[in-house]
Amino acid sequence: MAMAYCYLMTFETACQQKNACGRHFPQTRQNGKESRAGCFFCRLSVLKWTKMQKPEEHGMATEKLFYEDSHLRRFTAKVRSCRPGRHGWDVVLDRTAFYPEGGGQPGDTGTLGGVPVSDTHEQEGEIVHWCQGPLSEGAEVAGELDWERRFDLMQQHSGEHIVSGLVHAAFGWDNVGFHMGADMVTIDFSGPITDEQLREIERKANEKVWENLPYVVSWPSKEELGTIPYRSKKELTGAVRIVTVPGVDICACCGTHVSATGEVGLIKIFSSQKFHEGVRLELLCGRRAYEHASALIEQNRENSGLLSAKPLETSEAVRRLLSEHAACKMHAAQLETAVFRAKAESVRGAGDCLVFEPALDAEGVRKLADAVTAVCGGIAAVFSGADGEGYKYAVGQENGDVRAFVKDMNAALSGRGGGKPFFAQGSVQADRAQIEAFWKGRRG
Ligand SMILES: [Zn+2]
Predict the structure, then answer these.
(1) CATH architecture label of 337-443
(2) Per CATH, is 150-215+257-300 categorized as 3.30.980.10?
(3) CA gyration radius, the chain
(4) How far is the centre of ligand 1, averaged over its atoms, from the C-alpha of 248 (Å)?
(5) Do 2-144 and 150-215+257-300 show the same overall fold?
(6) What is the distance in A from the centroid of ligand 1 to the CA of 236?
(7) Which of 250, 417, 433, 436 could make an SS bond with 230 (beta carbons 3.0 to 4.6 A apart)?
(8) Residue 114 CA, ligand 1 centroid: distance in Å
């Protein structure tokens, strides 16, 4: 498709203009013109340039300004059609910088003639802008992208290519799933990658950012395509758009990209988990990676202050604290058992016992009731709580049956709970005076 008008540019100019080969394939360059002409990346540059010279070849389809300049934020265009749609008004232009959702990259938002555009989609071969109001057909309108959002999406997408290319080269795994979420970007790979291997991939990915390598876009012919080792999620037919980062990645992709890897800024992998036969990575690039890393550092700074530990020693301090906490819990449980035993001793042989104990959790209530049940010789009813908030209870009787008592109590004191014949646990929505009155009434 693009090959028809290659006469517009020589290979030499392409090389000088794009500078891709000179920087990344010095050997090829030294070998002179013939070698350059045979160089893969040079040919890509030529193809891209010639493609861009002939927008009219697109016929009646909307001219895709986002492919000519991925950094174009403002443009003017003629409204070709405007119809009511499911999301407001479906507007089709003669040309647009709004990228329609595809290839894992969300559609653009922004304004057309001052009217908000909530999303952009390709529908039946047309690029449709979902506008929140109507535009006059035939009118010339100014379009403006939500550039911060689009640039963020380009940083994520372009960074994803670097990581996917490096993983493919190192392990042969394919990117089988890519999602740009509101918080995290996920990539699914077809095979396992260890944490150590991921650290190495991340380090290399950032080195590629520092090298500021170009993103070269091309539309190779069918014959040429057969010679290119490109990554693709599916079998492709028709014109294929190839996005190349020299020495890092060659991928069939319809998305918009930054001009050079330096714009990706930062690539940070935040987590990895097993996913089918491979792994799912959570990562972020650019501004989002910077902001997320800053938030994590802020968390650690706060924890470092709370723990009186140096920022790189917080986990050691937490480990120490957890082991102290476990020892304290065990000591408290031993003391509690001793206190409950002593309390139970004071009602040994007393028969039915009503006991109030402040601020016990459900487990404490159960343990105290167990201790009293073992020695009192009657029904032991232990309550813990406060007036206005309600009370937790545990009721037991050795070899007895407390079910009827508990049923009556729940009915009288807005309670809930139950258990075994000889032991029940629950709570009541009543004050201490009401509980005591019920207890006395039952006895009396
Ligand atoms: Zn892509």
Answers:
(1) Roll (3.10)
(2) yes
(3) 35
(4) 13
(5) no
(6) 14
(7) 250
(8) 30
16, two tokens: 């000088």
Backbone phi, psi, residue 33, to 5°: -60, -45
* Angle formed at CA 219 by CA 33 and CA 146, multiple of 5 degrees: 120
Tokens 């990915």 sit on residue: 205
**What CATH architecture does domain 2-144 belong to?**
Beta Barrel (2.40)
What is the whole-number distance in angstroms between the Cα of residue 434 and the centre of ligand 1? 70
d(CA 204, CA 200): 6
Q: Where are the domains of the chain?
A: 2-144, 150-215+257-300, 337-443
How does pLDDT run along the chain (444 residues), one tens digit per residue?
Answer: 333 322 222 233 333 333 333 322 322 333 333 233 333 433 333 333 333 333 334 457 899 999 999 999 999 999 999 999 999 999 999 999 999 999 889 999 999 999 999 999 999 889 999 999 999 999 999 999 999 999 999 999 999 999 999 999 999 999 999 999 989 999 999 999 999 999 999 999 999 999 999 999 999 998 999 899 999 877 777 789 999 999 999 999 999 999 999 999 999 999 999 999 999 999 999 999 999 999 999 999 999 999 999 999 999 999 999 999 999 999 999 999 999 999 999 999 999 999 999 999 999 999 999 999 999 999 999 999 999 999 999 999 999 999 999 999 999 999 999 999 999 999 999 999 999 999 999 754
Separation between Cα atoms, residue 307 and residue 398, nearest integer Å:
48
Task: Give the length of the chain.
Answer: 444
Cα-to-centroid distance, 51 and ligand 1 (Å): 19
Q: Which amino acid is at 426?
A: G
Q: If residue 27 lies in a helix (H) or strand (E), which one and from where to where?
A: helix 26-30
| Three-state secondary structure call for residue 151 | helix
Q: Measured between alpha carbons, how far is 244 from 130 in angstroms, rounded to an integer?
A: 31
Q: Burial-class residue 293 by CB neighbours within 10 Å (0-12, 13-18, 19+).
A: middle
Q: Which residues are CB-contacts of 207 (< 8 A; sequence separation ≥ 6)? A: none
Structure token pair of residue 357: 């104990």
State the pTM of this model.
0.72
Angstrom distance (rounded) from CA 103 to CA 434: 68
How far apart are the CA of 35 and the centre of ligand 1, in A? 29
Instruction: Mark 60-82 as b/e (b = at least 16 C-beta within 10 Å).
Output: eebbbbbbbebebeebebebeeb
User: Cα–Cα–Cα angle for 38, 39, 45, nearest 5°?
Assistant: 115
